[in-house]
C-alpha cells in the first residue's frame, strides 16, 4: 500500500460518526458491565489483584526493589499487573478496580473492530455491524477478566489497523521509518501481555527484512542498514526482557539461591514440557469459541477472517496463521483464551468478506439477515453469559450439547455471604482447596493456614492442608466435586445454591 492509499484509507474513518462510536461503546459497556457484579473464579484474577495491590503499596513507599521482585516473581509478563495500578490506587484493591481497565480495553476493542471494518469496506453500516456483533458476543466474559487477554486483544486490533495503514516495506522514506517504529511499539506492547505474541514479532520483522532485500538494487544496502539500526533498540529490549525475567531466575536457580524455578522461567519450562504436536488443542479452541461466541458461527468467523487477511494484508495473514498453527497444533492447555483473541482479530475481516463479496446481501438484506444473526448471538449471550445463575443452576448441559467449553462462568454467582456465615464461628486453622479468593479477597481476617501445602490422594481427594509451620487446617473450603480422602471424623456442610462445601475435621 502506498502512502497515498494509506491516506485515502484514513479518510474512510470519517464515515464513522461520534454516534456510531457511542452506539458501539454503549453496547460493549452495557453487556460487559455484568462483570462488576460477578464472583471471582479460580486464582488468576486474584493473583493479579494481589500483585498489583502490593506494587501500589510498594510504589507509595518508594520500595522499588520490592516492586521489581513482585513483577519478576509473577508467572506472566508485567503488563497485566501494571495497567490496573491507577484504578487500584484510586479505588482500592477491589474487583471493580482490577477489572475496570480490562473492560475499558474490551470496549476499545469493539470500536476498533468497527473502524477496521470501515477501513476495509468504506461502509459505515458494515463497520457498525462488525463492532456491535463483537460487543454482543459472550467474549466479554473472558476479555473483561483481569488476566491480560483483554489487553492483548485490543493491542492485536491496533496492530491490524496499523498494518492496513502501513504494511511492511523497505525503509527508504521518513514515513516508512515512522511506520516501522509505530508497528514495533505495538508489537512490544503485545509481547508485554503474553510472550506468545513473539510469533507476530518474528513474522512481521521477517516481512520487513524481505521488503528491504527486495528494494531496488541501488537502494537495497540503505534499506537493510536502516532496518538494522531502527530494529536494534527493539531487539535489545527483547533481549533485556529475557535477561531479566528468564536469565535472573535461571541464575538464582543455578547459584542455589532458590530451590525451584519461579516466575516466567517456571511458566516457560512448564509450557515447553507440555508442548507437543496434537489436535486436541484445536478441538478445545473450537469448543471454547463455540461457547463464547455462538456455535459454529464463531469458528467460521475465524476461518473466513483469515481469508480476508490474506486478501488485504499478507503480513497480517502470515503472522496470524502462524499464531493459529502454534496455539492449535503445538501448545497444549489454556490455548482457548489465545484463540478467542485471534477470533476477534478476524472478525472485521470476516465481515468484509461476507458482506462485500455478496452484493445482494449487502444491498438488500442486511437488516433481515444481520438482524437474525445479531438476535441469535444476543440471545445466546444473555442466556449463557449475562443472566445471573447460582453455582448449581447454571445450564452446563447447554454448553455441552453445543460442543462448547466454558473456561470461566462469571455469571454463576457464589453466595459469598452464606459461605461467610458458615465460616464466622470457625475455630482452628482454615484452608482452601477452592481457590485463593477466599483467603486473599473475601475473608482475609480468618485464621488461614499461611503458605499452605495441599496434599491430595491418587484420585484427587484431599488428604490435608497444612500451614508452613506444619499445623493442620481443621476447616477446609472445597468444591462440591471434591472430597476428603478419609471422611472419618469429618463433617461435610453444603450451602444451598453454591458449589462450595465446607469440611470440618472433628477428630
From TrEMBL:
Keywords: Membrane, Transmembrane, Transmembrane helix. The chain crosses the membrane at residues 21-40, 96-118, 124-142, 185-207, 227-252, 291-310, 315-333, 339-356, 368-387. This is Glycosyltransferase RgtA/B/C/D-like domain-containing protein. It comes from uncultured Alphaproteobacteria bacterium. The lineage of its organism: Bacteria, Pseudomonadati, Pseudomonadota, Alphaproteobacteria, environmental samples.
Amino acid at each position: 500500500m502506498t502512502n497515498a492509499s494509506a491516506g485515502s484509507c484514513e479518510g474512510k474513518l470519517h464515515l464513522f460518526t461520534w454516534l456510531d462510536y457511542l452506539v458501539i461503546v454503549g453496547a460493549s459497556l452495557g453487556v460487559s458491565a455484568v462483570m462488576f457484579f460477578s464472583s471471582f473464579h479460580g486464582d488468576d484474577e486474584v493473583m493479579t489483584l494481589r500483585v498489583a495491590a502490593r506494587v501500589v503499596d510498594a510504589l507509595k513507599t518508594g520500595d522499588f526493589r520490592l516492586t521489581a521482585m513482585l513483577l519478576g516473581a509473577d508467572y506472566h509478563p508485567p503488563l497485566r499487573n501494571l495497567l490496573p495500578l491507577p484504578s487500584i490506587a484510586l479505588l482500592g484493591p477491589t474487583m471493580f478496580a482490577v477489572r475496570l481497565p480490562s473492560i475499558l480495553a474490551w470496549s476499545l476493542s469493539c470500536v476498533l473492530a468497527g473502524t477496521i471494518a470501515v477501513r476495509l469496506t468504506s461502509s459505515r453500516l458494515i463497520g457498525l455491524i462488525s463492532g456491535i456483533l463483537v460487543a454482543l458476543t459472550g467474549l466479554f466474559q473472558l476479555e473483561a477478566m483481569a488476566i491480560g487477554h483483554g489487553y492483548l486483544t485490543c493491542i492485536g486490533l491496533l496492530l491490524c489497523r496499523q498494518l492496513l495503514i502501513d504494511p511492511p516495506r523497505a525503509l527508504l522514506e521518513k514515513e516508512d521509518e515512522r511506520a516501522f517504529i509505530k508497528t514495533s511499539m505495538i508489537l512490544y506492547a503485545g509481547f508485554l501481555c503474553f510472550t506468545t505474541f513473539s510469533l507476530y514479532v518474528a513474522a512481521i520483522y521477517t516481512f520487513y527484512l524481505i521488503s528491504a532485500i527486495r528494494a531496488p538494487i541501488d537502494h537495497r544496502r540503505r534499506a537493510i542498514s536502516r532496518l538494522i539500526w531502527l530494529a536494534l533498540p527493539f531487539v535489545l529490549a527483547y533481549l533485556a526482557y529475557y535477561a531479566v525475567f528468564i536469565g535472573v531466575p535461571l541464575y538464582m536457580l543455578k547459584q542455589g539461591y532458590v530451590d525451584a524455578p519461579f516466575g516466567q522461567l517456571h511458566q516457560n519450562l512448564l509450557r515447553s514440557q507440555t508442548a507437543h504436536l496434537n489436535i486436541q488443542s484445536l478441538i478445545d479452541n473450537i469448543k471454547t469459541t463455540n461457547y463464547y461466541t455462538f456455535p459454529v458461527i464463531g469458528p467460521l468467523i475465524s476461518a473466513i477472517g483469515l481469508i480476508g487477511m490474506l486478501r488485504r494484508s499478507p503480513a497480517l495473514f502470515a503472522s496470524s496463521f502462524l499464531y493459529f498453527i502454534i496455539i492449535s497444533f503445538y501448545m497444549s492447555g489454556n490455548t482457548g483464551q489465545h484463540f478467542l483473541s485471534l477470533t476477534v482479530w478476524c472478525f472485521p475481516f470476516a465481515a468484509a468478506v461476507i458482506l462485500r463479496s455478496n452484493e445482494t446481501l449487502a444491498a438488500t438484506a442486511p437488516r433481515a439477515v444481520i438482524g437474525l444473526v445479531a438476535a441469535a448471538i444476543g440471545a445466546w449471550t444473555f442466556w449463557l453469559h449475562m443472566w445471573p445463575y447460582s453455582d448449581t443452576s447454571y445450564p452446563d448441559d447447554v454448553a455441552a450439547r453445543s460442543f462448547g467449553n466454558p473456561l470461566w462462568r462469571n455469571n454463576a454467582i457464589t453466595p459469598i455471604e452464606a459461605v461467610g456465615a458458615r465460616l464466622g464461628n470457625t475455630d482452628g486453622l482454615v484452608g482452601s482447596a477452592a481457590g485463593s479468593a477466599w483467603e486473599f479477597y473475601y475473608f482475609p481476617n480468618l485464621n488461614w493456614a499461611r503458605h499452605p501445602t495441599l496434599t491430595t490422594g491418587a484420585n484427587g481427594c484431599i488428604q490435608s492442608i497444612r500451614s508452613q509451620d506444619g499445623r493442620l487446617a481443621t476447616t477446609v473450603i472445597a468444591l462440591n466435586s471434591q472430597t476428603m480422602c478419609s471422611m472419618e471424623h469429618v463433617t461435610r456442610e453444603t450451602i444451598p445454591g453454591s458449589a462450595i462445601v465446607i469440611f470440618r475435621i472433628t477428630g
